[in-house]
Amino acid sequence: MWRDYFEPASLENALDLLAAHAPEARIVAGATDLIVEFDRGTRAPCALIDITRLPGLDAITLGDDGCVHLGPLVTHSAAASSELCAQHARALVQACREVGAPQIRNRATIAGNLITASPANDTITPLMALDATVTLRSRSGTRTLPLAKFYTGVRRTLLQPDEILIDIAFPALGAHAHSAYLKLGLRRAQAISVVNCAVMLARNDAGVVTDARIALGAVAPTIMRAYDAEGVLLGTHADEAAITRAAELAGAATSPISDVRASADYRRDMTPVLVRRALTAALHNEPLVAPAPIPASTAQHIHTAACAVNGHNFAVAESAEHKTLLRWLREDCDLTGTKEGCAEGECGACTVLLDGHPVMACLVPAPRARGAQVRTIESLEQGDALHPLQQAFVDCAAVQCGYCTPGLLMSGAALFDSEPQPSDAQIREAISGNLCRCTGYYRILEAFEQVRGARG
């Protein structure tokens, strides 16, 4: 795992720590990628600098410069539910809702997604289409770069070992400009893109396209812009012929590879399909489907060695410094209801609530729990009675082998805490990160519907 774990008291303190330990140090925001890399042995042990408790870094604001600004701690869930982003960056909202699963989106940050620099990442593509910039800071100064120039290759960026990404900004789209994001994956959730695309179209009062941007992911070494395709749309009314021609040119501009998810030919063939659909979606600008509300955070933002687990204080001892939250709960707290299914954030069996938000416990460093509130499956019973969702699982025979059940119940409890009458779409999204290997989803959905009906 990691070598040292630091919790700086300020951004300046974080910069000092980074400078002192560079290049063998990493900033931690969500840490969802880093922990998997440590566990698989693909990243050597290094120091982690956890900035998640620093105030003011999770804001989404509209600046006097006419740009939307995202702080380095803005999570995908926060952006997906942001009215400001929905108004000015529809494509970004759509992309954020495609990242991993709800538990991942509650922890993973957009800044971390950009820094990971995978050509298949979801949020780079819309931000590229939105002409975003990134601001980097070190002890020696601050610099701002266009996102398009930030990448130098597959998983390579211009970020220096002593720099922190402190701001993401893009011009707010006006009333006559609309964007859209589409992704082709092998399943509905927890899927890496086979191909993804983001588009932006701006038109004048006469409906003539004055600006067009098309960004493509998973079809080149870095996220790319299809400039020839964009040029075809300028000066047109974006009619069917113009859209078809732009889509063809976008496909021709790609240089995909074959891998375990798809062949190069398939990616090349599917790119025009996605571009055509995305351009049509941007023109129609249909209303976004509202996600379930994010549960109110119970974070105390206090620095203490104790963690409140199910209302009882547990010390995150020095012996737990190199453990995940999952292993600390099971091994140190003797709370074995939380299960380990995959240890890499794929199955949701280890879902717990961290400061009110569902997270994958296998992807959270145990030291992050200091001063936080954690709820596990052991907390759901209400006195001598089962939680309504637990009772519904019994009534509907939603439990088969039972291994996935604790994670499903915690995801469901968080949903009903924030939305007493969730829609079918909200229910399915809430448990999209929880795999049932017995394929008992219909009974599970019946249990959710029973609770919803009882509250109606």
How does the overall form come out from the CA principal axes? globular
Radius of gyration: 22 Å
| Topology, number of strands | 19
Kindly identify the CATH topology of the largest domain: Enolase-like, domain 1
Question: Strand order, biggest sheet?
Answer: 4-5-10-6-7
Rounded mean pLDDT is 94
> How far is the first residue's CA from the last residue's CA?
47 Å
Percentage of residues in DSSP E strands: 15-25%
Kindly give the count of domains: 3
Specify the CATH architecture of the largest domain: 2-Layer Sandwich
Q: What's the tally of helices?
A: 16
Structural class estimated from helices and strands: alpha+beta
Helix content: 25-40%
Q: Biggest β-sheet, characterized?
A: 5 strands, antiparallel
Main CATH class of the largest domain = Alpha Beta
* Poorly predicted runs: 298-303
CATH-level-4 superfamily name of the largest domain: CO dehydrogenase flavoprotein, C-terminal domain
Lay out the secondary structure.
Blueprint: E1 4-6, H1 11-21, E2 25-28, H2 32-40, E3 47-50, E4 60-62, E5 67-70, H3 76-80, H4 83-88, H5 90-96, H6 102-105, H7 110-116, H8 124-129, E6 133-138, E7 141-146, E8 151-153, E9 156-157, E10 164-171, E11 177-184, E12 195-203, E13 209-217, E14 224-225, H9 227-233, H10 240-252, H11 264-284, E15 306-309, E16 312-315, H12 325-331, E17 351-354, E18 357-360, E19 373-375, H13 388-395, H14 405-418, H15 424-430, H16 441-454
Parallel strand pairs: 1-3, 2-3, 15-19
Antiparallel strand pairs: 4-5, 5-10, 6-7, 6-10, 8-9, 11-12, 12-13, 13-14, 15-16, 17-18, 17-19
Helix pairs in contact: 9-10, 10-11, 13-16
